């Protein structure tokens, strides 16, 4: 099983399935293709039907979409979704909300593991996104008891992993739920592995440097 990803410093969509699969203990080969925006990412287009990363390749199966890769991973490691049906439904709803929403936060605050934390002036739309994230995380942690959104680590946490980075490096929230989930996520060996590799990368993508 091979997972093709982009820069660990910037590629939020690559981080999500990589983290889920690593925490679940699934064995996979990692292939990193650095962004080359000026050339239109030809190397990525050669291996991805969408021209984007991540891409999972297992035999004849090619999955070129983050959440779909994570669903496939959950077929192999069922613990990636909560066991209880109601919690599993809420976790899937949270993951889907992250997948489809929070556009202002994404546009204005790119994930960047090379950036030192510093405040950033953001729009009211970003503040609205942050308020919704605080509400969702607070309600989920209160209901589950933590340390992750639905108790044990799940695909929902993996979906929000890049948001943990964004909220920290742009100093967008000091909400207790944000502090709690940030501590839990950063305590994962898989998170620490990703972060160390990201910080060691030599590539700089100007568009993602706010």
UniProtKB/TrEMBL annotation:
A Pfam family reported for this protein in Swiss-Prot or TrEMBL: GST_N_2
Presence of the UniProt keyword Nucleotide-binding in the record: no
Recorded protein name is Glutathione S-transferase
Species annotation:
Albidovulum inexpectatum
SUPFAM superfamilies reported in the protein's UniProt record: GST C-terminal domain-like, Thioredoxin-like
In this entry, which stretches build a coiled coil?
none
Q: Which key words are in the record?
A: Transferase
Where the record annotates domain GST N-terminal, the positions are 1-81
Citing just one GO molecular function, the answer is: maleylacetoacetate isomerase activity
BP terms from Gene Ontology:
glutathione metabolic process; L-phenylalanine catabolic process
Q: Entry's Gene3D superfamilies?
A: 1.20.1050.10, Glutaredoxin
Top-level taxon in the UniProt lineage: Bacteria
Q: Which InterPro entries match?
A: Glutathione-S-Trfase_C_sf, Glutathione_S-Trfase, Glutathione_S-Trfase_N, Thioredoxin-like_sf
């Amino acid at each position: 099983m091979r997972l093709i990803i982009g820069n660990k410093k910037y590629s939020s969509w690559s981080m999500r399935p990589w983290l889920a699969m690593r925490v679940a203990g699934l064995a996979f080969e990692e292939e990193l293709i650095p962004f080359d925006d000026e050339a239109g990412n030809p190397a990525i287009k050669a291996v991805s039907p969408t021209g984007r990363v991540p891409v999972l390749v297992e035999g004849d199966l090619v999955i070129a979409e983050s959440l779909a890769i994570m669903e496939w991973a959950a077929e192999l490691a069922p613990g990636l979704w909560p066991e209880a049906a109601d919690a599993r439904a809420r976790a899937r709803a949270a993951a889907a909300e992250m997948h489809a929403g929070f556009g202002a936060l994404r546009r204005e605050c790119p994930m960047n593991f090379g950036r030192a934390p510093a405040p950033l002036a953001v729009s009211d739309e970003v503040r609205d996104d942050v308020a919704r994230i605080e509400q969702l995380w607070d309600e989920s942690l209160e209901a589950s008891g933590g340390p992750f959104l639905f108790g044990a680590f799940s695909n929902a946490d993996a979906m929000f992993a890049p948001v943990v980075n964004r909220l920290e490096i742009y100093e967008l929230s000091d909400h207790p739920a944000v502090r709690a989930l940030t501590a839990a996520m950063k305590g994962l060996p898989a998170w620490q592995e990703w972060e160390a590799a990201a910080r060691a990368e030599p590539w700089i993508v100007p568009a993602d440097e706010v």
